[in-house]
Amino acid sequence: MGLADSVRRMADLETFRAEVRTWLDANAPAGVRTPPRTPDELCWGGRKGSYPEDVRRWLALMAERGWTAPTWPREYGGGGLSKAEARVLAEEMARLRLRPPLTGFGLEMIGPLLLQVGNEEQKREHLPRIVRGEIRWCQGYSEPGAGSDLAGLQTRAVRDGDDYILNGQKVWTSYGDKSDWMFLLVRTDTTQKHGGITFLLMDMDTPGVQVRPIRLISGASPFTETFLTDVRVPRRNVVGEENGGWAIAKMLLRFERNMIADVFKARDDRKRLLDMARRYVPAAGDHARVGDPVIRDRITQLEMDQLCFDLTLARARDRLGAGQPPGAEVSFFKLYGTELNQRRRELMVSIAGPQALGWEGPGFSDDELALTRDWLRSRGNTIEGGTSEIQLNIIAKHVLGLPD
Amino acid sequence: MALVLTDEQELLYRTARDLVQRAAPVGRLRVYRDTRDPDGFSRELWAEMARLGWLGIVVPEAYGGSGLGWRELMVVMEALGRNLVTEPLTGTVLLGATALLLGGTEAQKQAHLPAVATGERFLALAYQEAGSRYDWTRVETRAERAGGGWKLTGEKRHVLDGHVADCFVVSARTGGSETDPHGITCFLVRRDAPGVSVERLWRVDGRGAATLRLDGVTVSADAILGGEGQAASLLERTLDRATIACSAEMLGGMLACFEMTLEYLKTRKQFGVPIGSFQALKHRAARLFVETELARSIVMAAHEALDEGADDQRVLRLAATAKARCSDGFVLMGNEGVQMHGGIGMTDEHDVGLYLKRARAAEIQFGDTAFHRQRLAALDGY
Description:
By secondary structure, chain A is α+β, with helices and mostly antiparallel strands.
């Protein structure tokens, strides 16, 4: 690559930036120019969701350009942008504080997976609908008897002509009640453990699929149980080969862990923690300062660790090509990101003191009630998506090469 | 800018690693210690470093340096840190040359920087005292006007690389009370000036240092570095830069200690299997890996910020965070390294103990984690 080439590419990129900036500013509706307060305020798409007018319009406008999935190829509805262009788009969206037009497991997990290992028919059927936010996806991995030992799953898929007949139970299905399709792992061979697993795509409206909500220690949750009774799924919905699902399952888990780690990048929480400390633990006579030196030190330590973590994610992104499946190091992002979030929630509880003890009703502000629930919910972060202990196993084996 | 090395930086790193692997095996620290070697390092290796341009990496070409960047210094420091190199870069390059670059007059820079780059001059920063611990604004050493110049009296402690320094940058009080950050002035003091005495210290990590005594040492008016009463800002900016480079060195030490320990986990057998197959050790090794990755990210970001001319507040933030992260990580690595090596790790014969010692010394050098957290909290006004 000559110097002239790289200079021209830089110039092209700046032209692109100017165009993006103008277009975003001209088209983004007012309702998407504020950061979402909860994940539920984001647009997850799907047949069952209902979203405010501005959110729907934003989705439609961005999807038309493929900018809900900027780096996916144009032939599947994506934006066809290079990694550098996608970064420019992200920077310009951040500059205007625009919400992402769409989020969810379609964009973050099954879409990238299908791009890697899906067949042409599957890519044409599913990717454009993900880009447009028409279909919301959920994940059918865990079972009552298969948690950390995921490959011990028992949900059976038995061949019947061009179909499989599914029987079994999935748990911890996030948003199972709001999703349209599920990607799931089923057992197609009972004689071998890892080699008897198949990766399937299933329409949630198929007869025999029943969804029930799960209540957590933090109260209501997006999790559901999914019961499968004689559910008929066409064989063309197998991703990869029959009995070849384990390798695909692991690849998808890396996308998932990547997504989870991303969730725990620092956002506006930094200011919130300090504001809380100044309000609940003020220094006598100086309300800008935190009165308790131990709290002050814990805040600083957390912010330092958060900065190091954010930089590590940025460094990994700089190395990784767009859309490439992340490697085993993503286990460390998941491990550390979730622990940081737990530390942050615990610190907030410590700061709020007795005001963090409310469950519902008077005497506690909405923010206080939310922080209690958020703290409880955060305990699950180091369990879901593979426990911290499983992540440590993966790092030890696949990154450090330690023997079994 | 991206947090990845360029091909040139990778090459520089490999060159530096090759040189120290060949010329500076870790075991030489025991020899220097046991023979009470006055230098505690190799002057030949120092000359080689000068020839390779490492001593003047961040010194502009106008003063005889290579005019490269902080990231180039970073990869060299990481390579040196891997082998616990004792050559006096901390005093001469990280502190001495940096202070001159930030606060020196044209004449001062011309007088010292070219000689630093060629390896002919050793410098040291004498900024700590018996009562200062990490608070270097606590200065009791006095400088009083004498004729057209100044007369310095006092004692400076823990002067890194001071045992060989030809010239010291000395902080002394020219005004204010003992704890006042204002009224501190830096002076360039030659080792051979009448009234200067230097006593070598023998440290646990094998690094050279000295106590510097000033007994009515007279210097001329042009010995002031960075302006009368202006030393607080000069010292803070100098120390932040040195702290960032020191973090790169610590990262190198951390990585070498990690790799040594990992190798041991894979090869040492007990109960008929490699001990690295035990989950109790695997999980801890995985946590140590996390420490190295986090440390690398902040170290790279801090050097990148220096290259991009970040403002002093941002430099302080990154320096404090890098040092805190590397201190915690390196100390943990040293402790775990010895623990995982078991009995052999406690012997003087094994290298892992040398890393444990350096980790502790490096943690304390330029302030420990608690100190840097307090600095950050103060910067953000809480």
